[in-house]
Amino acid sequence: MLPFDFDYYRPETLNEAVDLFQFLDQQGKQPMFFSGGTELITLGRINLAYTEAVIDIKDIAESKIMQVSGDQVLLGSTLSLTKIEEANLFPLLTKTASEVADHTARGKITLGGNICARIFYREAVLPFLLADSQVLLIGPNGKKIIPINDIFQGQLGLEKGEFLVQIATENRFIRAPFFSVKRRQQWDTGYPLITIAALKVNQQIRVGISGLCPFPFRSTEVEGALNNIGQSAEARVAGAIAVLPQPILDDVEGSAEYRLFVLRNLFFDLLAALDRVQV
Question: Do 137 and 144 touch, CB atoms closer than 8 A?
Fold first, then answer.
């Protein structure tokens, strides 16, 4: 049970959802867009989230889309991770999303809910960062389409009253060779520590990481070090470690030193998997 009450709304169109947010905000209701609900329930119970009005966007047709359209794949923000996994339209996303939580939870966690969450991990964003995907947002100023790498800097930079509707990814990235691994505290069953996802595009490795820092990220500096094929694997990995963003998480789930140890080994696994792949 949540320690507060809220009004519940379920709009059927994008414009209705946007107008409803503005109306409720003007009333001081602190409205919240809601597509899965797992974060609201989790954080609300410990007084880290509060709202007097929930706007559930799961009935909006545009947010439920899942299709190949021309040369790109379109995925709606309210699709559950389970549906995305079963459809397998984007293999790297399928592999990465299949490691989020457990099967029961993935049936409730939505794509948008994971990407826009406040938790550290948000693994589902990594494939889109690597694939230069485009996001469709809507808010008080209307619709806009933005490259995800322009608007995601540790978190999705939504303006007040905006929400994520769809993500579009070009087929050339969908078909690229990939690598995705999650390491846990006890490898197969423990608490998540590090997730690494990678694509090889035009003979260059692109890499995204979750669980190392308080935010998921893609780093061109890390990629530059890993793609320095004139050096040994040891030198390339050392170079990548040297340019990681800060801070490195250091908590009861895993020390900074241990997380870096795990990541270093994952970098070697990544190079072994993708170095010899020709694209």
Answer: yes
